[in-house]
Specification:
There is one protein chain. By secondary structure, the protein is mainly alpha-helical. It has one domain. The chain is about 45% helix and about 10% strand. The protein contains 3 helices and 2 strands, in the order ββααα. It has a two-stranded antiparallel sheet. A hairpin with a 4-residue loop joins strand 1 and strand 2. The longest helix has 15 residues. The chain is globular. One of its GO terms (molecular function) is transferase activity.
């Protein structure tokens, strides 16, 4: 787990690839809702390996 940021109304946690399953489940559960507001996603987006690689890349960029 990465950094954790606290405010009066929010706790924001940086996630890593160990959280891939949680992120994947979130995206699958909310797929229909997100389709209204986000670009069309390819099927690979809804795979665990893709979510893990995205989290790993996000983590890498946050360290720059």
């Amino acid at each position: 787990m990465g950094k954790i940021y606290y405010t009066d109304r929010l706790i924001l946690k940086e996630l890593d690839e160990l959280n891939g399953k949680i992120v994947l489940d979130y995206n699958i559960r909310n797929k229909e809702f997100f389709q209204k507001y986000e670009p069309k996603r390819h099927d690979v987006f809804y795979t665990l390996s893709y979510q893990k690689s995205q989290l790993k890349m996000d983590r890498k960029f946050s360290e720059i």
